[in-house]
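tool_call: predict_structure(chain=1)
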Amino acid sequence: MVELEGPHQLNVSRSSRETELSALSPPRSEAELDDLLSRPTETDVAALAQIEGDLLVLGAGGKMGPSLARLARRASDEAGIQRRILAVSRFRTPGLVDALAAHGVEPVVCDLLDPGSLDKLPRLPNVVLMAGQKFGTTGDPALTWALNAYLPGTVARRFVTSRLVVFSTGNVYPVTSSKGSGPSETDPTGPIGEYAQSALARERIVGFFSTTQQMPAAILRLNYAVELRYGVLRDLADRIWHREPIDLTTGHVNVIWQRDANAIALRTLLRCAVPPFVLNVTGPERLSVRELALALGERFGIEPAFTGREASTALLSDASHCQDLFGPPTVSTDMLLDWVADWVGRGGRSLDKPTHFEEREGRF
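tool_result:
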């Protein structure tokens, strides 16, 4: 069992569906994985029953968008709510448009930075903004600022009468003591590097439109969503499997099962406020990278190789408020380790999108 160092271990009761999810065996195919990532709990269904109106997901073609759109579709259907779910993206992944349409989501092919394209989208009462750029910032900082700062302003202008949930990042915080729980939502920000700075600009611009135009909004500071094809645990597993050393300098991380992060985003539509409601979204534990690697190595039967020493600081977030509001994750860290090890050991596909969680200078 992985040593969990987080101070916020909550005893929150689970619904029968949540208990069922936590008892599942590892997904054996991408179809099974995608089904699991979009499977709603009873709490999700109840929340979608309370949300009025259709939903627009902007930037839905990335790592999390397709499963969020499908989760919204399934939860709405189970709630008996007739609702349009529109997924907007350039959709560069082959087959994704057809896959979403087959599951009752309406794909809309659109370049959100193209002049006039955003204004052609219907004004729906619920909007989730997932579009943004992290990797490639060092090579093309102008595009990063356009996606992370300019685009949120144009979205807020266009959908000023909607409820707007915006994905941000825990990178808006500075690194803090690796022995602590990390900054809470009321602690000062301190972004390192242009990506993190542009992410904070996103938040400030959304805050401006929210307060001046009375637009209800929510900002989610996400810190390392994971599933079996990408994420911190997949990064570690790949290195162990390929006998590559793991740098321990960034010695502690937070992670959250992607399905749970998406469920929180949808349920946060009910908490949009003026000024924006801000929430750290990640798991409840401060996890040791060394302990995670050793746990994965034990599952593989491989002794991990390490380089460096744990620094006294790390990029962490205190998600105790998130746990108070939404309860614990439906999938534990130990179960995620089991699933990732099984997936990698069987040659399961990777998205080839490393998190670069070790990066400490903000260069992406």
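agent: Residues 193-213 form the longest helix (21 residues). Proceeding to next step.
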